[in-house]
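Entry type: protein chain
Record version: 2
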Amino acid sequence: MKIAIQGIPGSFHHQVAINCFGTEVEIVGYRIFEEVAKCVAQGTCDYGVLAIENSIAGAILPNYELIDRYNLTIKDEYYLPISHNLMCLKGQKIEDLAEVRSHPMALLQCKKFFENYPQIKLVDDVDTASVAKRIREEKIKGIGAIASMTAAQIYSLEVLASDIQTVKNNFTRFIILQKPTLDLGLVKPNKASIKVTVNNEKGILAKLLSHMSGSGLDLSKIQSIPVIEKPWEYSFFIDTEFEDYDAFKTAIAEINSSFGSVKIFGEYQNRK
């Protein structure tokens, strides 16, 4: 079994892949999220791990678009508690650092910590663990990385400060992607991710939300995106939770007939 992730060993995606699939699978790292989606769609990998939202920084909207464009299905979700740690080559202190590099979201989540160190320049990079790896391989002094404890262990870096994220109760939601399948598993789903493209009518969104609520569907997320080929019209990415799977299916059929069109990205178990 092959699992696609964005990043390298020590990244949060790598950690989720191990937690979900174990250590016996082959984990294949890719540079960007689109390469993960593409390899799953082409069948090069069996599953893909994709970050979709963070409890501090919010949703990663381009990743919703990747699910849609590559016609992928959400098999499952996983909530990972995020611990950001400042690390560098051994033998240095935080006062020795002129620059800290990491993924933009990691830098955003740790911004307050660095207010006490104005001499440190924060620089966006591709991935948390890749910076740690580069520092180790190139023996770079004066530059730190923000990454996981696992990355510090893998690349033998010294942790100068742990849990430096502003909000300690910090989670990232990951989704497990696969090619479309009719298999729902042994347990009926109680959560779904859908895309609704509504009819261009006055008050249609309010009517849609009222209908979903009346059908027993609890909206845990809604994000709007423009319909590219139709200026000023919008689609909505929606995560909804429910207790009655049959009621959910009935509600979806009614949305298709009365409110617009629905594309189901995935039906799965709520892991929150």
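Comment: The chain has three domains: 2-81+171-178, 85-161, 191-268.
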